[in-house]
Amino acid sequence: MRIAIVGAGVAGSYLGNRLHSRGHEVEIFEASKSQDHWPVCAWGASRHMLEKFSSESGLDFSKYTLHVGQRLRMDLPAEKKEYLELKGLVTYDKKRWEQDLLKELKVHYGQRCLPSSQLFNGFDYILDCTGVHRSLLPKSNENFIIPAYEYLIENAHDIDEFYVIGYKGARGYFWFFPLGDGMAYVGAGDIDKKYYGISEFFNQNPKAKILKKIGRPIRLSPPKRMQPFSQHNVIGVGESIGCVFPLLGEGIIPSLICSDIFLNNIDTAAGFDFKGYRDQVLKRFGYYDDVYRIVRLKMAGKLSTVKHFGLLMNMYRNMKKEELRFGFEIDFGKMRRLVNAL
Ligand SMILES: Cc1cc2nc3c(=O)[nH]c(=O)nc-3n(C[C@H](O)[C@H](O)[C@H](O)COP(=O)(O)OP(=O)(O)OC[C@H]3O[C@@H](n4cnc5c(N)ncnc54)[C@H](O)[C@@H]3O)c2cc1C
User: Fold this and answer.
1) Count of domains in the chain?
2) Quick check: pTM over 0.85?
3) What CATH code is carried by the domain that includes residue 157?
4) For the segment 179-190, what is each residue's pLDDT rounded down to a tens digit?
5) Composition of the chain by helix, strand, coil, percent to 5
6) Backbone angles phi, psi at 220, to 5 degrees
7) Whose CA is nearest to atom 50 of ligand 1?
8) Confidence band of 95 (pLDDT split at 50, 70, 90)
9) In which domain, by residue range, is 80 found?
10) Which of 63, 134, 202, 309 is the most core-located residue (most Cβ within 10 A)?
11) Which residue has a Cα nearest atom 19 of ligand 1?
């Protein structure tokens, strides 16, 4: 089949590679120019999952790992602190990983596509892998996004662990993600756009040198609220249809899981199975809707650990089952303390 992929991010580059190796004719259209293309992200995700996705695409993930985390330090409101044991959370060279996935493919950089684009004549399917932009699919009923930006820095040798500051009311958080050799991402996502922690970090670390400032919002509304997933022969994959874990704004692994669901439904005798894809995405990401409700209730100051106990338990049970997919320990006591502290 002839397949156009719009967006060369995590979903677009992975799908391009996998579809090409299955014998499909693939072309990628990416808005940014080749020399400016940068994966806007803090490059943190679970090694266990990335090893699997890499080996399926012929890559050796160990060549891309930058920092292997041991624990994550969390500063919480009212001077509280928590530490999470890490179970595979790493940072990796996401730019090189995506570039290597795209090596054998025809990529048209500098092509910002619109739904009406003439570029797609003759393609059987067009994949909307444009992430938060959702450039080709119609608007969804509920599009909740959180503003975020970050700095790529060097000379940050004093901290070499994952570090976050959780904001009161779960309204966002600051992150420090080490990239090895004193390099790191320092950033924040914050519904109130105050981004507490960033200027404090630079005051405390005067030697840290900024190499790049990047940013874009992160979508928190999950798949259930990001329908439709397709229109005519345009199909959304990844963050464009809400595949982001709403509590953390973490979308690398969810976008790749969504890509695998796409792959399970493309090579049927009747062509792409739209219904199968929709059902499987809704099922796989079903509990993300509960997590989203928890986040929105907390942001509105309406979350009650008594009244919403069922929702919280559901989040805990589902996350616990997927501990290795997250790359950090899922502990009920810590989760309860966290929910109460925020
Ligand atoms: C600051 C920040 C830090 C983050 N950190 C993490 C993290 O550490 N771990 C994690 O798991 N998640 C993180 N996320 C979320 C994660 O990066 C995204 O959820 C994930 O990249 C989504 O993948 P995607 O392939 O759906 O879209 P993207 O990776 O965003 O790719 C979309 C691509 O489409 C292109 N594009 C957009 N519009 C058009 C158009 N009209 N025509 C052509 N091309 C277009 C864009 O240029 C981009 O290359 C972070 C997000 C932000 C903003």
Assistant:
1) 1
2) yes
3) 3.50.50.60
4) 999 999 999 999
5) 35, 25, 35
6) -105, -20
7) 41
8) very high
9) 2-341
10) 134
11) 251
